[in-house]
């Protein structure tokens, strides 16, 4: 088997995600034979440093021996069982561990199989909570401009990335969109905290005006990842928690991308010292091994559904693979690594190194900003540094960086013209230096 023959077979029968398939007439598809640590290897033996953790899911490298062992062990006993009416040890243990490490008060775990599904669950649960309390006026959600919460219709409706949403608008429920605290737009000299605090005014107004018809506010804490890795200050979350309490509205924290150490802390909400009413988890939950997501919530929400069957208050939502034992074992092994290897502390050094390695890029004539939150670093490529005018999107400059990265054996997959590093936590300092070098070369070429 080689790259070409597998590619040809692929292109006859597959339809790839988030892809204009015609691009593959000119851009090669890359068949991967195996992965080890932070590296992927194709069928021609070429290696690629996985700088984006295979779409933000991988935490401890490909083919991680400890996670492999856990899944192999589980495979000998139970691959899957229905979770309605039945249970199993991995799902009980995982729930206990998640309740232990999540922000205080999140005491219940409901499982699904993708981030989007976890978001759907949070939206439905919040809506249903108010119904169960007899409040039928609440049908709406408040969300932030430039947010992303997944691709299914409910999740898409509370997102705001036009590229993914626009076409489907006629199918979507109408969310209330509020200005993003995105600090890219702060005034010269203004601090992240000041800008994010200032941006909160619009949220306060929206809550005051709509509180009676709103179920919940949904946000991505600290980093709007799919929205070009735009970042904001924890002060916004602090104010948002207070305002949601004041107006009697739920807060949904979508930590599908930023959870599990990405933001520098285990959960991004910790940096604001807050706990949401719903916490959505996914992506890194299984270390990037298997599809599993969770929606965690409070005793108070749980209690609103707990009643005689005939009261018809139960949450009758399900997915076939809910709480899959293999995925739960992968998640448990992942949490063991966090605990045993003191990962959050060790990541501080890696994050600092990433910052140093990319720092000089802020002087590049085609870079408007280099920004970082924990293990996420983003480089905003623009046509004009002074005015921050972007390149026309049709020019696909980010794609040129992607192609240069592949030539050099680095998997960077820019979001538009924003190049970012979101590597597995097993990356080395030397490998981070390679990322920075290749990113600079790519930007030089793309901007020329
Ligand atoms: C990726 C992502 C989702 C959707 O998760 P899927 O597993 O792709 O459905 C939702 N919210 C955020 C913040 C994400 O980054």
Description:
The protein has about 450 residues and is an alpha/beta fold. The chain has two domains: about 5-65 and about 340-445, Aspartate Aminotransferase, domain 1 (Alpha-Beta Complex); about 70-340, Type I PLP-dependent aspartate aminotransferase-like (Major domain) (Aspartate Aminotransferase, domain 2, 3-Layer(aba) Sandwich). The protein has 14 helices and 16 strands. The strands form four sheets. A seven-stranded mixed β-sheet has the order 4-12-11-10-7-5-6, with helices on both faces. Helix 3 (about 65-75) runs antiparallel to helix 11, helix 4 crosses helix 11 (about 325-340) and helix 12 packs parallel to helix 14. The radius of gyration is 22 Å and the shape is globular.
How would you describe this structure in keywords?
448 residues, alpha/beta, Aspartate Aminotransferase, domain 1, Aspartate Aminotransferase, domain 2, 7-stranded mixed beta sheet, 4-stranded mixed beta sheet, 16 strands, globular, binds pyridoxal-5'-phosphate
